[in-house]
Amino acid sequence: MGELGIGLIGTGFMGRAHALAFRNVSAVFELPVRLHLAALADADSQRAEHCAAAWGFARAHGDWQRLIDDPAVDLVAITTPNHLHFPMAMAALKAGKAVYCEKPLAVSVEQAQQMQQAAKAAGVVTRVGYNYQHNPMIVQAKALIDSGELGEIVSFQGEFSEDFMAAPSSPFSWRCDPQHAGGALADLGSHLLAMARYLLGDIEAVCADTQTVHHQRPASAGSHERRPIAVDDQAHALLRFASGARGTCSSSWLKHGYKNHLSFEISGTRGTLAFDQERLNELRLYRAGDSGFQRLLAGPALPGYAAFSPAPGHQLGYNELKTLEVHELIMALGGHGQGGTDFAEALQVERLAAAIRLAAAEQRWVTL
User: Fold this and answer.
1) For residues 323 and 24, is the Cβ–Cβ distance under 8 A?
2) Which of 126-135, 181-190, 235-244, 269-278 has the lowest mean pLDDT?
3) Cα angle at 179 between 174 and 182, to 5 degrees?
4) Smallest Cα–Cα separation from 125: which of 284, 364, 342, 363?
5) With contact defined as beta carbons under 8 Å apart, do 183 and 356 qualify?
6) What is the helix, strand, coil percentage profile of the chain, to 5?
7) Which pLDDT belongs to residue 178?
8) Which residues are within 8 A (CB) of 287 and not within 5 positions of it... i.e. 6 or more apart?
9) Nearest by Cα to 6 from 50, 70, 86
10) Where do the domains of the chain lie, and which CATH numbers do they carry?
11) Nearest to 172, CA basis, from 225, 128, 242, 237
12) Is the pLDDT of residue 179 over 90?
């Protein structure tokens, strides 16, 4: 494979993040293939033309199927609302093309299963956008856990909270439609569930409670029309890990003051490790017997960091994490490594989220 044609569907926040990552990855890493930004698609053809020109894509399509059919496209990157992931990914897999899909993988376990089966049959590389796991500090956290630095792990306390839907006047969007999304659990909690599995392994049982706080929202910004809300504003779950550890997981898009509070504390018989995405370049580590927590700063000794900065404490950001995710994707496509979340692992996250919803609905423990 000498050249890899990139096709990007969607021009919102995540579409731009993908475009930046595809442009940046060649500048900071030696890649096994040359990247060609072949095509960009958006339902708004004028916006597609504008973004393709601004972001460096060779051509624009107003129809996503035309992008998938484009012979110059080898990899299809999907950054659309959740309900479109399934038809787009299935069409791309049918065409024999690799797929890089934003999270969550689908709006139901049934869809996710079909996507995984189609990917397996197609024999192509797939990845899902759980980019927070590509933070060098998260890789370091996993290394500390796996090395036994914390002893036997006994607890995980995780939270992902933001406040972009905190005001009752925040308007209805596709995220509020249960057929198109899945509430705070799908939007934020899926990242936390994926993180818990990445760091500590399988979760075998859950008990949960979910709540819709604002039962109506304006149909659009400033509108007097109200639309009913049928998705969760916040979710709380108890977790039992296969390892024997116990945990909690909470997600909310109502928590005032938090902008990207993906956080966890992991405790073992010999110490505790803590992380907060709002301070993404550091970990806090406490070893039994210490006088307090030690602050560990990101630096060039950690894999991935030195590609962006030669000095510790200079800090990476969100778009660097996306570039690191894309780097692992490109390496996998070039036959060099298997890093990242593929459709098979993303399916397990969807099963876990579905179990949490069932546990909340039936007010009982659910075994996976």
Assistant:
1) yes
2) 181-190
3) 70
4) 342
5) no
6) 40, 25, 35
7) 87
8) 149, 270, 271, 294
9) 70
10) 3-131 (3.40.50.720), 133-315+341-367 (3.30.360.10)
11) 225
12) no
pTM over 0.70: yes
Sorted by sequence, the CB contacts under 8 Å of residue 139 that are 6+ apart come out as 302, 303, 304
3-state secondary structure of 3: strand
For the chain, what's the residue count? 368
CA of 210: how far to CAs of 47, 213, 316, 366, in Å?
A: 37, 10, 34, 15
The tokens for 266 are 């992991």
Q: What is the pLDDT of residues 303-356, one digit of tens each?
A: 999 999 999 999 999 999 999 999 999 999 999 988 899 999 999 999 999 999
Contacts of 18 (CB under 8 A, 6+ apart): 8, 10, 77, 79, 100, 322, 326
Residue listed under structure tokens 């899909």: 101
- Sequence-ordered strand ranges (E) for the chain: 3-9, 34-41, 59-61, 75-78, 98-101, 126-128, 153-161, 203-211, 216-218, 226-228, 234-241, 246-252, 261-268, 271-276, 282-287, 294-297, 366-367
Residue type, 197: R
Q: How many CB atoms lie within 10 A of CB 368?
A: 14
How many CB atoms sit inside 10 A of residue 284's CB? 16
